[in-house]
Write a structure and sequence with these properties.
Layout: E1 9-10, H1 23-32, E2 37-43, H2 49-58, E3 62-70, E4 75-80, H3 83-98, E5 120-125, H4 127-135, E6 141-148, H5 153-166, E7 170-173, E8 175-176, H6 182-195, H7 213-217, H8 224-234, H9 255-274, H10 280-296, H11 299-314, E9 320-322, H12 329-333, E10 363-367, H13 371-382, E11 387-395, H14 398-409, H15 413-423, H16 428-434, H17 449-461, E12 465-477, E13 488-489, E14 497-501, H18 502-507, E15 512-518, H19 519-534, H20 544-549, H21 551-559, H22 571-580, H23 585-594, H24 597-601, H25 604-617, H26 663-668, H27 679-690, H28 694-705, H29 711-727, H30 732-745, H31 752-771, H32 773-783, H33 790-799, E16 804-805, E17 817-819, E18 822-824, H34 835-844, H35 852-859, H36 863-872, H37 881-892, E19 896-897, E20 900-901, H38 913-923, E21 955-969, E22 975-983, E23 986-992, H39 994-1000, E24 1012-1022, E25 1025-1035
Parallel strand pairs: 1-8, 2-3, 5-6, 6-7, 10-15, 11-14, 16-18, 23-25
Antiparallel strand pairs: 3-4, 4-5, 9-10, 11-12, 12-15, 13-14, 17-18, 19-20, 21-22, 21-24, 22-23, 24-25
């Protein structure tokens, strides 16, 4: 009988082109085959280490984790036996990835393997690998002689003397690549995808698909010592970082000293915010929070974040802490956040509490201009080897897997396009389940075996990684060095990224800080800097209630005139603000929560609007509706939410509203008119109705939100809630209904503290827009990255009464400048102008440019830069564009007279308007001298957008430039669009339902360079806001102009 042999190696999909089985699938296959071990030996990486450890535990297997080091001939399998050995391998992997594609040395070991420290085991497979081990000494690393499944007896006998001299016992090396026979084709397809080739040209190394021990041993039955060696080798676990133990960076060796420092900083910050002595409520809350932070051992973490915030403020930039951190008074005192948690009823327990032992999650937003500077600060403060960005693992979705598999299998592009359009954003499994009832799948060859083969192979590749990218903002500071936990790989930033993604990083115990780049904080910093140069900053900027009460701000907010203002400028948000006639900080905070998809789709947004108007104007309004997939028609009007048939408690109710479920429920939801819209509302209701502590209520919120959801947890929580409610006299039927609503709403509820943090910045920016429109819009244009494109912001600037002038070589900076109340565009807007040329230009501005000749001599733009500067209008002080171009041509040809350039008079006439517009599009990509509608042939009979209120319910025709679009897929799988168009008077909204989109959606691709389209549809009104429900889109062609000289 053949002895059983365990596999010693396995490639996960992170060894791109080598593996196709995620650890969880391989673990299930190995367990089913009776194997005792789950190996993982990716090529110079630990990307899949945590999933492998967890998969092994789930299937009762021992993890055997190392990495494969490729050599010019053969390879090494390296397994760490202690933490130092693991760190050494992580360092080697990091060095390997610093120079991807570097050729391997013909003999010996590559330099990134020199000097491995710690303890471990090194398995050499191949004669050259064995020889390399003999040439390099790794104290603490035991050598093994690897015998591959395809090894010949002759080669083995040739290697035996060297192995004996090294003291390297033989081990059979079987690499498990496949968990199922179908994985072989999947790997060939994966290789074809990586090489952009057809699958017919791909081969894969021989590897077993039967994983039972006797099957793996069969090829080496002639070498029983190697099989026995593999069993003994696999019986000894490799070392991996322990999971579930937190590793926080320490600023102080003594935790008590860290706590004392944090308490001193917090008390000082609180006194700055509230005055001294602290009000009793503030002092009590601060002491309670500090006590929890100290008990949980997180003082050093807060001190680390404080250092980061202090550095940003030293550089003159505000930090915006968001998410649940804004529930904390300590965060507010230390200026992580800028919303008063006491004044706005924010619960610390939503952020941190004794029942929740996971570390705090503090997210910080910075101006996009300084985030890299903050990274460098962390490296200086903690050392290069302790700081890393967190990676994200980009994977193939269903549509991508289908498309790439089809290309590799040779499907025609047109046929693949049909398949990928049909699948949309579904998984392949979802597509297969719904395909026969989906309109988008009509006409597909669903019964064709070739099509089914495509889907089968694609489903095996779905979810597999394609490459690493950067997490949006996650950073870790690793005590003792990042290589204690993970290898790193290079990025375009000054800091490398971890091989492990966010969840694995947390599993090995590193605590992430999210440092996110935000363009609006760049706007804030620019305007504050300009105002500071004019005098002291207005105190109103630090008082959110005063900001909201400011008459111009209140008027703009209530009308939804918020274009350019962070967080509240999208078409949907502008519409919601207008429907609410939003006034005040609390209403703005609620608005930015109820607009989220889950709330809106459940009918809660419409219910909130109706209740808001009822509470503020005394109108009757429906009771709280049960969550539904879409708003339910009711007598209140189309799209309004219908009353719920649920039983109501006769007592309770809110002013202007019908009775609610129970007085306890109504009272805690008074702020939101009896509707749960915040995550904190679940906590409030559990606390008030069932007597949960706030810490227990937060754990319930987490369970309901899905982060820790499980049937057993939910069953225990439900029983505890119903018992607590009964103890407080809540009828059983009412308690059941409250529980049902909590469970339904919590899945899409939003963190109130996050909305409140962003609402502060929104009000500050809106105040800047209302009172300093030129400075504000100049900053919006400079920082880019808003919801709309720069052309839309130029139009908004003009609507505010601010002129926008073209760049000027004598007056422009790199960014925009406000001169005499007008915005002069910066040189950064000139297409193709290099920073080096711009810097020469800015340096030469000191002495001015007496002539074009002087400009050319001192700035030296190349031909393309000169053309762009001329087209943009930046050279207009030297004459009309045609004259300037001819003058340069003469200068390059030596056509200069002592008196300067000699030009014919006809080229010195001002350029016609259409020529200026075409030049601006070439030089800036923007129109300054005209509106896009000026360049198209508008048909007669179009309605201007300011006349829409006079035509509610009627069919009209308008034209506008497309400035925003939002594609939506309905529950039936049909596509539709929300469009924002703009005519000369302002933006207007268009809804294109599926029938109209199917027929007229192609018009958007025919809009031409300036993006103008026409729309015909019915004018609809909703709480005073207007939109057009399109029944037809139509193209509007460009007008015919003579060609513009270049």
């Amino acid at each position: 009988m053949i002895d059983r042999c365990p596999p010693l190696g396995c490639f996960s999909p992170y060894s791109f082109g080598e593996g196709v089985c995620p650890p969880v699938r391989m673990a299930a296959a190995l367990a089913a085959a009776g194997q005792p071990v789950l190996p993982l030996t990716d090529v110079m990486g630990f990307w899949a280490l945590v999933p492998a450890v967890k998969a092994a535990a789930a299937h009762g297997l021992q993890p055997l984790i190392g990495m494969l080091a490729p050599l010019a001939d053969g390879f090494l399998l390296l397994y760490p036996d202690d933490e130092a050995g693991y760190s050494a391998l992580a360092r080697a992997a990091s060095a390997f990835h610093r120079h991807p594609g570097r050729p391997l040395p013909a003999t010996g070991l590559p330099d990134w393997l020199h000097g491995l420290t710690g303890r471990g085991r090194a398995v050499a497979v191949g004669s050259a690998a064995l020889a390399a081990l003999a040439d390099f000494s790794f104290p603490g690393w035991q050598p093994f002689w690897g015998i591959s499944a395809d090894a010949s007896r002759a080669r083995t006998e040739a290697e035996r003397p060297l192995a004996a001299r090294l003291g390297a016992p033989p081990v059979a090396v079987i690499l498990a690549r496949f968990a199922h026979p179908a994985d072989r084709l999947a790997l060939r397809v994966l290789r074809a995808i990586h090489q952009n080739a057809l699958v017919d040209r791909m081969t894969v190394p021989p590897a077993p698909t039967a994983l039972a021990g006797d099957a793996l041993a069969a090829p080496l039955s002639w070498f029983p010592e190697a099989i026995a060696g593999a069993r003994a080798f696999a019986a000894v676990p490799s070392w991996t970082p322990p999971l579930g133990r937190w590793h926080l960076p320490r600023l102080f060796a003594d935790p008590a000293e860290a706590h004392q420092r944090l308490a001193a900083l917090a008390r000082h910050g609180a006194a700055t915010r509230y005055g001294s002595p602290l009000p009793p409520a503030v002092a009590e809350r601060l002491a309670a929070e500090l006590r929890v932070i100290a008990d949980l051992g997180f003082a050093d973490y807060f001190l680390l974040v404080h250092e980061i915030v202090t550095e940003a403020e030293r550089q003159g930039h505000r930090v915006l802490g968001r998410g649940s951190a804004a529930n904390s008074l300590v965060s507010y005192a230390l200026r992580f956040t800028h919303v008063d948690p006491l004044r706005h009823h924010l619960y610390f327990e939503r952020f941190l509490n004794p029942e929740r032992t996971t570390p705090p999650d503090i997210d910080l937003d910075f101006s996009w201009r300084i985030r890299d500077d903050i990274y460098r600060f962390l490296q200086r403060r903690w050392g290069d080897d302790q700081v890393a960005l967190i990676s994200t693992h980009v994977t193939l979705g269903g549509r991508g897997a289908l498309r790439e598999t089809g290309k590799a299998l040779g499907f025609p592009p047109a046929e693949l396009a049909r398949f990928t359009r049909a699948i949309g954003h579904r998984s392949i499994a979802e597509f297969l389940a719904e395909a026969r009832t989906m309109p988008a799948a009509r006409g597909l060859p669903l019964g064709n075996p070739v099509f089914h083969r495509l889907l089968r192979v694609a489903s095996r590749l779905e979810g597999l990684p394609t490459h690493l990218s950067l997490h949006a903002g996650g950073v870790v500071v690793a005590p003792g060095g990042i290589h204690r936990f993970t290898p790193v790989q290079p990025t375009s930033k000054p800091v490398p990224m971890t091989q492990m993604e966010m969840h694995a990083i947390e599993a090995v115990g590193l605590v992430k800080i999210d440092l996110l780049a935000q363009r609006s904080l760049g706007v804030f910093a620019d305007v504050v800097g300009d105002l500071a140069r004019q005098g002291p900053l207005p105190a109103v900027l630090e008082d959110v209630d005063a900001l909201a009460a400011d008459p111009p701000v209140a008027e703009a907010l209530a009308a939804g005139r918020t274009m350019g203002v962070f967080y509240i400028e999208s078409p949907g948000m502008r519409s919601l603000l207008a429907r609410l006639r939003c006034r005040g900080f609390a209403e703005l905070t609620a608005a930015s929560s109820v607009i989220r998809p889950g709330v809106a789709e459940s009918g809660m947004m419409q219910a909130y609007i109706a209740r808001h108007h009822a509470a503020t104007a005394g109108a009757s309004v429906p009771s709280t509706p049960a969550p539904t997939a879409k708003p339910v028609p009711s007598p209140a009007g189309p799209g309004r939410a219908a009353p719920s048939p649920a039983d109501r408690s006769p007592a309770g109710g809110l002013p202007g509203l019908p009775p609610g479920l129970h007085p306890l429920f109504d009272e805690v939801l008074r702020e939101t008119y009896g509707i749960m819209i915040y995550q904190e509302d679940v906590m409030k209701v559990a606390h008030a109705v069932a007597g949960f502590t706030l810490g227990e209520a937060d754990l319930l919120r987490r369970a309901m939100s899905g982060k820790e959801r499980g049937d057993e947890i939910m069953a225990r929580s439900r029983s505890r809630f119903l018992e607590g409610a009964a103890a407080r006299g809540v009828p059983a039927a009412v308690a059941e209904e409250i529980w049902r609503q909590m469970a339904s709403f919590s899945g899409y509820a939003f963190c109130k503290a996050h909305s409140a943090s962003y609402a502060v910045l929104s009000l500050q920016l809106l105040w800047m827009k209302c009172h300093h429109p030129a400075l504000f819009m100049a900053a919006v244009l400079d920082n880019r990255g808003g919801f709309y494109g720069p052309q839309a912001y130029l139009s908004e600037t003009r609507r505010l009464g601010v002129a926008v002038l073209p760049p000027d070589v004598a007056r422009s900076g790199w960014n925009c400048r406000v001169i005499d109340g007008a915005i002069v565009l910066g040189l950064s807007f000139v297409k193709g102008l290099s920073r080096a040329t711009a810097d020469r230009l800015l340096a030469a501005q000191v002495d001015g440019f007496a002539s074009l000749e002087a400009f050319l001599d001192r700035v030296r733009p190349d031909d393309a830069e000169f053309a762009a500067l001329n087209d943009s209008g930046a050279l207009a002080r030297f004459g009309p564009p045609a004259a300037v171009q001819m003058a340069r041509t003469f200068a390059r040809g030596g056509g200069l007279l002592p008196g300067g350039f000699v030009l014919p008079s006809f080229v010195q006439k001002p350029a016609p308007r259409h020529e200026l517009a075409q030049r601006e599009l070439r030089g800036l990509g923007l129109l300054l001298s005209a509106h896009p509608l000026d360049l198209v042939a508008l048909p007669p009979g179009l309605l201007p957008s300011d006349r829409l209120p006079d035509h509610v319910g009627r069919v009209v025709r308008l034209a506008g430039v497309l400035i925003a679009r939002k594609p939506v897929t309905t529950k039936r799988g049909e596509r539709m669009q929300f469009l924002t168009l703009e005519d000369r008077l302002g933006p207007f909204e268009v809804t294109v339902f599926p029938p109209a989109w199917r027929r007229w959606g192609h018009v958007l691709s025919e809009a031409g360079e300036v993006g103008v389209i026409g729309v015909e549809g019915r004018v609809a009104a909703d709480w005073g806001t207007l939109s057009l429900e399109a029944n037809r889109l139509f193209p509007i062609p460009l007008r015919s102009f003579p060609p513009t000289p270049r």
